[in-house]
Amino acid sequence: MHLGVAEVARAKGLHVYWNAPTDEGDTEKQLRFIDLSLTRRYRGLIFAPDETIASRSPVLQALKGGKPVVIVDDQLGPPPGPLLSYVSNDEEAGARLAADRIAKILHGSGFVAIIGISPRLESGILREESFEKALSSIAPGVRIDVRRYGDSVVTHQQQIAKDILKGPRHINAIVALTATATHGAYLAKIAADSPSAIKIVGFDQGLLLPIQSGDVDSVVIQNTRKIGQIAMQNMDEQLRGENVRGLTLIPPMLLTKETIGAPEIRSLWEFAHYRWSGQ
Amino acid sequence: MGVCPLPLEWAVKGRNGMFRAATAFVSLSAVAITAAFFFSLSRQHTDKSSPLTPRTFSRNDAWVALGGKWSANLLEIQNNSEERGAKLMTRLGARDDYQIQADLKIASPYGEAGLIIRSSGEEEGVDAYHGYFAEVRSLDSSIEFGRTDFGWFPLLHKSLPDMADGQGWVHLRVVAVGCRFGVAATMPDGRKTSSTVDDQDCIQTGRFGLRSYLTSATWRNLEVTNATSADLSGFEISSATPGPDHSGLGEPFSPDRLDRYTASIRDDAKKHEIQPGVEPIADFPLRPGKHPNVTVQGVVISAPPLADIQDETGAMIVSHVDSSTPIRLGDFVEAHGTVISDHFRSRMEDAHMRVLWSDTPIPPLAVTASQLTGGTYRGRSIEVEGNLISARSRADGYELILQDGNQYFKATGSRDFRLDSTDLKPGSRLRLRGIATSLPQFTNDLYPFTVVTEKVDVLSPPPVVVADSRNVAHPGLYSPVHIRAIGPASTAEVAYSICAEGAGRTRL
User: Does domain B8-241 sit in CATH 3.30.1360.30?
Assistant: First the structure.
């Protein structure tokens, strides 16, 4: 997302201050960054919340001060308006990609465990509900047998996945709804004493190695570059008092061993060759 | 986050900027004690013949921590956290041409750690600084060097010698001369990978520091000296910039290395597996007696000397923790030992502990000092506020006396790079995070409880109008002077008491 934001900002002559907490999921620190941005009198705020409810007050505070805000990847609650717009990954489309994949690799029947459910984020709830809905429609012969909450600790997610692998229920596939849960499921699978045939379908960008090795079947990845570009375009227009679309949904992509080299997916990696100085 | 006493904009400018910064600080500040200390460091630093010593680096006041859980002794500096980019920056000023080198060891099979050079504008955050970073990466057994401007731009990437896994001790050296940089990594067996790289329109000056990413790491034999172009001889010449296969998070692996990396990750994943037979902590206070061979699991909410772990049902003190097992706050651990329960308290003795995973924050309960006297929250992760009465340093940390309402209480803690002692002024309102205990060895039976702190935040400075100390209503029994006369532990302390010194400033 940083790449998309920075390249549009550079083209528009805008400067960007970009930061994120070193502890993933550290909502308190993330909200301190918002306070900092208000203190420093930045002209606008693009914000991807870690938690929906906790983020409402600081965002409303920014809006009250007349500062344009673009919320990324979450439905915070306040309706869009002249100062507020939303740009999100299309969770329903992503859920359909995952459901399609599950239907294909399980040949239409079997048992699935869902891990990494994130009720702290509206987008996390939407993702889970959309997946259940899509699966029941696309593959009615596939049953969801286990549901587990997620957090930002990989090893904890590994433990949850291990319990599923070793548990009494026969599970054919794990659907991991976050990058952390996907990573945890991967670790549980490769640490198992005997090779596991369980399939893993994950969400959100992480390491490519599990895809290459085949331990993770596929991952629904966000088009973060596009999300960043649209967010910055919205910001530019909001700063100039122009009307922008209240909610823009960006379709995700399915990363598999076969699509790993596809141009649209490789374009996401170009952040590694972008010079950030003077951003 | 600590605050550097040197004004940042002064510290990063020009040649020999650090000397001038310290001088300016002296001339601008009336706080003679702190200024004098930094002045002495700067004199040492600008002397080209004398590199900075391990003794310098082991001092808490030599560094500013931006994220992470840092500790140091005369031999090593450690970060015990797996954050995305914890930094430890020198408080010394900027330099232009210099080199930094150290042995470093990475704990995780998919982490990165290394040395920052020519840095400025550091903040807490993932890539929150302007400067250069040379790192060893355990995931793909490589070294990488690049520039950070609140975003990472790799300039150089090279594999370590064959079969080197990047997880043993690696000697890393970075040289910056003009806009040319040299990076070298030497394995314990003497094999070496090195290269030079140019960065047009480079950052010309800045501080040095340490950084780790997604892993705990240890540095030793840290050395910083001036450099000239002669120091770049011996590095392999490279004009290659990193290709797309060596970038950031998304890096496809060559097939010949895929199995090796997977095996490395598998080994680490196995270490974190949980065994069956775990019992809830809350079961034991209601079962008086001795219970051998008990296994509990929970998050470490207080590290030794008062090790305390908390699960979803309660908390338990763990005595006699095997010192060979380093544990730290936020570790999720498995503890096996004998539980002793009496007086509706339980503790585990002779515990064998195993860290299952790290960085698991326990949200503290916000309580008042009065509530803590009741015992309901004893041993739990809490936050409590109070007005600072006094502060003083000890050989192993600090001790604070606070007041909240009609309760006076004590707080102790180990030295922390993030705690800036100059903020601790009497009358300040503080928020403490940690655990409260009424065990006599912590309270001396003088205070209702003592907070063993994990974190101290200054909420507000003292009121502008300073009250006459004669009107401050706290019993003489609790005065620092009085406390210092009590108990053998006090005799070893090196104290700077506000009340005793009357300096109007605390020094820890």
Answer: no
